[in-house]
Write a sequence for this structure.
């Protein structure tokens, strides 16, 4: 958290227009004792929401009352019932309400002879209902992962199944390239590929959810679970990846930097939904991963760039929490560029380009008892000693404005990001930070002099890398320099070959996936999350 009449024997259809605030109506035959006015089943078809309203009474229907309605934006048509005998006690009004671009709550009213009223309301879905596309971050990348439809009216879960809808998608990268089978689409899913780089999505399930996405028996939202993601296989010291067609949501497409893709998505309703009928669907929003939205991207950064910050819920003046500062690699820098007349930028791409969101996820937060996560996103100039003053100022600013324990500030980075960690932990400026610990992942080289400074500061260092990773070649000598200088240091050196986190293969450079998955352990079996949780000045 942050501080701070018709004649009764004639069947006639009446067409009436009504502004929302005005009542319109017709006369209908009833007895003096009308006691039922109740909407029956309605369904949408061809732009109209049609159904019946049941009317009931006691005695002979030898009187008339006025049926009125309000709340409609579209046209309303009512077809009165006929009275066939004195024994008739009920009638069914045929009602059709024109659908508009918004939900309508149309209330029908009868005023009885005694002055009392009966009311019933028909909730009319919009002619076109909207849906949001979901994105989910996993270690291999960012993916379109499902759909939330806002029906606007109540749906029961037994009214739909996975065959109620179909969906096709086309994805365009930030630089204008359209994804297709020639990219990384899985050749084993070629039957889903359509013309013009469209692809059929495989809907696995459809069910009703509440506003928070939790399953429920009835509600106005429908969630569609789809097949998404990627499969990988080792290839030398690297890996091949094969994406589910038209599901990858970002990639390194703008001057080599990670940026967000856009999506065209068409939903067709294949089966009628009971009580609703058949509707049309339009894309409203592309949602970020909920963990992405948990980061504050509004912080101004000295020298430029972005500084996503996650704040734990349990932080407070009486519960100062640790801070982990994490620096990204080469491909996740912040960029703002005009492409084909459109400004393209990538705020927070460092959170999903490689999954920094893991530090805001349950496993890490539980291990730390709640922790702040600051993930600065550099300008295109990247990380290095030229940003030392900026980053020291940023860290001090974040500490001053939040409930952070100054004795538990941890810094780490991967690849190019290690080039920012080293200046910070060897800094001797007046604004230098007293870090409780540091991580150098998939990179980092420390000289004897730098190791001596780190030892004098008392900063424990964890080095993580792969023997096949060219960027991590200096980690063994760095570790030795640290040990010889009397520093506390650990080295996790993985054997030659690709990185494998138990689910996916990656190139040998991508050892950060071991960290994000808490797979790094020392000779005593202590995990890296456990090690981090114990760090304090």
């Amino acid at each position: 958290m942050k501080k701070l009449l018709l004649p009764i024997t004639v069947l006639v259809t009446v067409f009436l227009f009504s502004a929302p605030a005005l009542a319109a109506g017709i006369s209908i035959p009833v007895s003096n004792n009308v006691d039922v006015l109740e909407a029956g089943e309605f369904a949408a078809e061809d732009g109209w929401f049609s159904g019946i309203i049941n009317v009931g009474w006691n005695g002979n229907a030898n009187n008339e009352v006025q049926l009125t309605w309000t709340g409609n934006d579209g046209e309303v048509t009512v077809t009165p019932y006929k009275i066939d005998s004195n024994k008739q006690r009920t009638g069914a009004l045929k009602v059709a309400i024109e659908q508009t671009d918004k939900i309508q709550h149309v209330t029908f009213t009868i005023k009885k002879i005694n002055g009392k009223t009966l009311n019933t309301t028909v909730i009319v879905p919009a002619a076109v209902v909207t849906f949001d596309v979901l994105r989910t971050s996993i270690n291999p990348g960012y993916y379109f992962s499902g759909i939330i439809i806002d029906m606007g009216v109540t749906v029961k879960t037994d009214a739909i199944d996975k065959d109620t809808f179909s969906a096709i998608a086309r994805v365009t990268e930030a630089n204008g390239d359209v994804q297709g089978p020639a990219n990384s689409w899985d050749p084993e899913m070629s039957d889903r590929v359509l013309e013009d780089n469209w692809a059929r999505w495989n809907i696995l399930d459809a069910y009703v959810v509440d506003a928070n996405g939790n399953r429920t028996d009835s509600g106005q939202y429908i969630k569609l679970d789809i097949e998404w993601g990627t499969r990988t296989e080792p290839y030398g010291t690297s890996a091949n990846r094969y994406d589910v067609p038209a599901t990858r949501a970002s990639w390194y497409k703008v001057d080599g930097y990670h940026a967000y893709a856009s999506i065209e998505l068409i939903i067709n309703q294949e089966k009628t939904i009971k009580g609703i009928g058949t509707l049309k669907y339009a894309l409203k929003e592309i949602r970020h991963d909920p963990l992405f939205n948990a980061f504050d991207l509004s912080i101004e950064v000295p020298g430029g760039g972005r500084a996503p910050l996650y704040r734990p819920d349990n932080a407070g003046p009486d519960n100062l929490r640790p801070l982990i500062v994490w620096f990204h690699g080469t491909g996740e820098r912040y960029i703002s560029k005009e492409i084909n007349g459109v400004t393209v930028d990538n705020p927070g791409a460092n959170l999903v380009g490689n999954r920094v969101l893991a530090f805001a996820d349950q496993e890490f937060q539980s291990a730390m008892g709640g922790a702040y996560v600051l993930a600065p996103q550099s300008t295109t100039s990247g990380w290095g000693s030229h940003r030392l003053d900026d980053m020291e100022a940023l860290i001090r600013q974040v500490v001053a404005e939040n409930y952070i324990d100054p004795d538990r500030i941890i810094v780490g980075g991967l690849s190019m990001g290690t080039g920012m960690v080293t200046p910070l932990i060897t800094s001797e400026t007046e604004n230098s930070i007293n870090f409780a610990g540091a991580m150098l992942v998939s990179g980092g080289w420390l000289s004897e002099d730098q190791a001596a400074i780190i030892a004098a500061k008392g900063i424990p260092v964890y080095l993580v890398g792969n023997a096949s990773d060219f960027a991590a070649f200096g980690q063994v000598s760095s570790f030795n320099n640290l040990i010889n200088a009397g520093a506390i240091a650990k080295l996790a050196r993985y054997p030659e070959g690709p990185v494998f986190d138990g689910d996916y293969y990656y190139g040998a450079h991508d050892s950060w996936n071991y960290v994000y998955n808490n797979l790094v352990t020392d000779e005593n079996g202590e995990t890296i999350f456990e090690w981090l949780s114990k760090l304090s000045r």
